[in-house]
Amino acid sequence: MRAATPTKAPAKPKATSPAAKPFLPVIENEAATGRIVLVCEHASKQIPARWGDLGLSADQREAHIAWDPGALAVSRGLAQRLDAVLIHAPVSRLVYDCNRAPDMMGAMPARSEVHDIPGNAAIATAERLARTEAVYLPWATGLHGLIAKRIALGLNPVIVTIHSFTPVYHGKQRRVEFGVIHDADPHLSVAILNAAHKLTRLHAELNAPYSAADDVTHTLRVQATPYGLPNAMLEIRNDLIATPEAAAAMADQLAAVLNMGLVEIQRQAKAS
Amino acid sequence: MRAATPTKAPAKPKATSPAAKPFLPVIENEAATGRIVLVCEHASKQIPARWGDLGLSADQREAHIAWDPGALAVSRGLAQRLDAVLIHAPVSRLVYDCNRAPDMMGAMPARSEVHDIPGNAAIATAERLARTEAVYLPWATGLHGLIAKRIALGLNPVIVTIHSFTPVYHGKQRRVEFGVIHDADPHLSVAILNAAHKLTRLHAELNAPYSAADDVTHTLRVQATPYGLPNAMLEIRNDLIATPEAAAAMADQLAAVLNMGLVEIQRQAKAS
């Protein structure tokens, strides 16, 4: 299961918690009527002033540990091509990783790949609460509201999260170019993978470069699975989407892939 | 799985939705440091003025179809005895049942037991959205925030929802007095049931008078399961808690039962 955070004496909750300025998620294309809701948790490398530079160099603050380079550009390209709404987080995952629960090590990581994060080395309970309130809660509330309203409207939402990964991790080259990761329900992910094999020459794999067992499917688990919504997490190797042109070309390919995957699960639903 | 709502043409979402006055959940005993978070979705029979009387008689608006009589009194008794925080919904489940997703029939039921609900007979999509925004979203957001903050604080929350049920349903007498219902993870429910058998003379059963298969565990499914939190739904036959004295006596019994159940799952967690 999830890695537990180091044991700390629990703090007494206050009846009214200190009001940290909340960082609201950004919603684009909200009037879209397509079924797909695009979610980009790691869109931003922005570290708000109150957290300084977290003790990191400028290079580190640009690197994949701070965000998913290219993921927002692909997400925007997909939103346009699929008549899909898009929601993305405005703060670096080094402050709070919106794809992690507040008690997961990775929510405010002290280390990411080969980098120590000095500003996260010893986070006091009050600071853990403050980041949860400032970043995670507005994010989760915004995403939940977006989804619940579309359920109420009869738009039958399908949740697709968009991520990118580094081609070299802990010194090892990754061969996979496009990963499709599922949580409890694999059917959309399998349909997307099959479509990728049919329509593209991408080296595509299921549950790669990691899987739900690595606790990377928090968003799907909280926001899609309990409502019975089809869902999938897409991972694109970031060297393939390093320029606006490359991201647009990838969006062209993946829009066709997602459309084919969606048609397939709609066919399955009708047949059952 | 869940009963689907009748098919309706999906409505176009607006970029800014009409601001319906939100009905915020009530949180009591927020400074409590006990692990248990008490949740009472059906605490209130209140129908706000904008929904009139939903076409129901005064008797119907007092009946179990509108709320869970006695559940709030028992919840408050438990909150006091267990040093537990309590959250309850301020609006009748006939307007919106906070233990149901927006696309479930039961969220805004057109019929409950033997009663037609005229005000819910033909709910337009815009009205379905308005009720979701006015009642369900503030409820879900408030409960999620309460839980996430306690996770961040290291308080290891355990979610227990408190319900009551009618002794006679569709003309049949129910023999069960105390039901413990689980969602995906049964371990807290089983520990509570065993404690009830040891400590009380209540006729107690697992997954009675209904179970997760009847789609009654929405709150647990959305708010507890995705975070890996131990959880259970308690159902008390409402003729046993019809007076303040009876509710207090039940709270005495169930506080001991919940404490024993909690000790048991903590023992199991240590042993594993």
Automatic annotation (TrEMBL), chains A, B:
Pfam families: FGase. InterPro entries: N-FG_amidohydro, UCP029730. This is N-formylglutamate amidohydrolase.
